[in-house]
Design goal:
Distance between the termini: 12 Å
Structural class: mainly alpha
Strand content: under 5%
Number of strands: 0
Order of helices and strands: HHH
Oligomer: single chain
Number of domains: 1
Largest sheet: none
Shape: rod-shaped
Helix content: over 70%
Number of helices: 3
C-alpha cells in the first residue's frame, strides 16, 4: 500500500519544483529585460541632454523588487524551509514505518 503512494509524492515534488523553478526563471527574465530596456532608455535620455530615464527605471525597479519578493520570499525554498521540509519528511517516514 505504501509503495504505491510513493509515485504520487514524487509527482507532487516534481510539480512543485518545476513551478518554483519557473517562477524564479520568470524573475530572471524580468530582470534581464529591465536591464536591457533601461540601458537603452538611459542612453536615449543622456544623448538628448535630459535625464528623464531615472523615472521609468525607479518605477519599473519597484515592480521588479516586488516581483522578486514574491518569488524569493513567498515561495520559500531557502535553507530554513528546505531543512524544515526535510525534517517533516523524515518524521512522517518514521511514523509510517512504525505503523
Amino acid at each position: 500500500m505504501y509503495p504505491a503512494s510513493r509515485p504520487l509524492i514524487d509527482d507532487e515534488l516534481e510539480r512543485r519544483a518545476r513551478r518554483r523553478a519557473g517562477a524564479r526563471m520568470g524573475w530572471y527574465v524580468h530582470a534581464m529585460v529591465f536591464l536591457a530596456v533601461n540601458t537603452a532608455l538611459a542612453f536615449l535620455s543622456f544623448s538628448s541632454g535630459r535625464q528623464w530615464a531615472i523615472y521609468p527605471a525607479l518605477g519599473w525597479g519597484l515592480g521588479l523588487l516586488m516581483h522578486g519578493v514574491g518569488v524569493w520570499m513567498a515561495l520559500g525554498g531557502g535553507g530554513l524551509q528546505a531543512r524544515l521540509v526535510a525534517q517533516e519528511r523524515e518524521r512522517l517516514s518514521r511514523d509510517r514505518s512504525g505503523l
